[in-house]
Predict the structure.
Amino acid sequence: QKEVEQDPGPLSVPEGAIVSLNCTYSNSAFQYFMWYRQYSRKGPELLMYTYSSGNKEDGRFTAQVDKSSKYISLFIRDSQPSDSATYLCAMSADFNKFYFGSGTKLNVKP
Amino acid sequence: GAVVSQHPSWVICKSGTSVKIECRSLDFQATTMFWYRQFPKQSLMLMATSNEGSKATYEQGVEKDKFLINHASLTLSTLTVTSAHPEDSSFYICSAMEGSNYGYTFGSGTRLTVV
């Protein structure tokens, strides 16, 4: 079983839609959770960082962590064509080694 | 914010030759840098952890004699793919943490194609 599972998509939505991206994991020791955005042929860019359970909001982005279900989500409100990218989740137990999802490709159509 | 510069962005080399990829932290010192490899539609795979002034720590299954890592200064780590073969063709990415407990900054990646 992989440490982190993420649906590769692609996910195609119309502009303005609410997007929900998710990852599940198996290691209950994970307590640091991140979401990265990666444009084609570029390195990942950190979007959100959360520690332990709960929600965190930053502009149009909301990250949720449910440790009891081993499930994390990233919500994008009022999605824009510029949000079209691959979104990677990453997590760690001790901030020394991170485990990445395979990424979900998002396409926001104008 | 923290910036990590990776060079070159893309490189094509002949089978059997060696290729060096540089990763620089531009406005901060990074005692630790990380090298990843990404295959299409797969997770970023950690290859090794590069520590300034000491030997790199390689992940299981990564050949240390094939992927040479040097971290000679607090702002520069290099990955050399030796005797490259077509199966080494991939996207290589480095990252470093600034020091604040806030995630890692990634380089822009290097697309290596071995022909």
Observations:
- Chain B touches chain A at residues 4, 6, 9, 41-44, 46, 49, 91, 93, 95, 101-109, 111 (CB under 8 Å).
- Chain B has a mean pLDDT of 88.
